[in-house]
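Researcher: Quick test of sequence recovery. Tokens follow.
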């Protein structure tokens, strides 16, 4: 029986991807650089510090890394206030709690922003832990997931993770955690091996009380 539900924040629990995309576009447009959806998608997952460093190198931005990160953080804070929970998020957390599962957020977002958003949306009380960036090397490395297992005192085979990006899914599977990949738009996602794709969070509810044999059968081969 899986006893622990681990959730990414942006694009999984929080319906924030369009907001993040707008921030990315505004950040580059301010600097007279050309944004692209392909670049944004490739940067979905790592901490903002890593994102900004990559943008600085790719677009030859002249400001210091600290100045660029401060501006990106400001833009993100302004836009994040209106982010809503993902459809099905509350139902999923309710089902997990009824099943007696521990719940935690594992995010590359900042602890302050993650905790503030969860509190304002009435979801913080459902969380046993919030592991936020930066933790170790960050996603796509498994460090954040290894940390949340340590904090909760759980094994990887007791957990199920939900991620919306291939980099986040790589972090979870790298920690040997069974992972569901949320793909609401039906994009062609190059998920890591073993990831089971879902289109809506409600689909994850059926996995919460699945037996070990069900998990083994679903991931065989």
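Model:
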């Amino acid at each position: 029986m899986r006893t622990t539900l681990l959730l990414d924040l942006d694009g999984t629990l929080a319906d924030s991807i369009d907001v993040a995309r707008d921030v990315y576009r505004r950040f580059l447009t301010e600097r007279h650089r050309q944004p692209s959806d392909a670049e944004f998608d490739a940067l979905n997952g790592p901490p903002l510090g890593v994102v900004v460093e990559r943008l600085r190198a790719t677009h030859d931005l002249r400001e210091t890394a600290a100045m660029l990160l401060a501006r990106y953080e400001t833009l993100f804070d302004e836009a994040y206030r209106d982010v809503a929970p993902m459809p099905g998020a509350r139902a999923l957390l309710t089902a997990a709690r009824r099943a007696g599962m521990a719940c935690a957020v594992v995010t590359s977002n900042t602890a302050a922003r993650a905790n503030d958003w969860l509190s304002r949306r009435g979801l913080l009380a459902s969380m046993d832990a919030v592991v936020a960036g930066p933790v170790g090397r960050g996603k796509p490395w498994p460090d954040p997931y290894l940390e949340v297992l340590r904090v909760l005192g759980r094994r990887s085979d007791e957990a199920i993770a939900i991620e919306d990006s291939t980099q986040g899914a790589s972090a979870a599977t790298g920690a040997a955690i069974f992972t569901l990949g949320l793909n609401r738009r039906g994009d062609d996602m190059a998920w890591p091996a073993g990831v089971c794709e879902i289109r809506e969070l409600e689909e994850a509810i059926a996995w919460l009380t699945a037996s070990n044999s069900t998990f083994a059968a679903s991931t065989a081969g």
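The chain has two domains: 4-15+84-219, 17-80.
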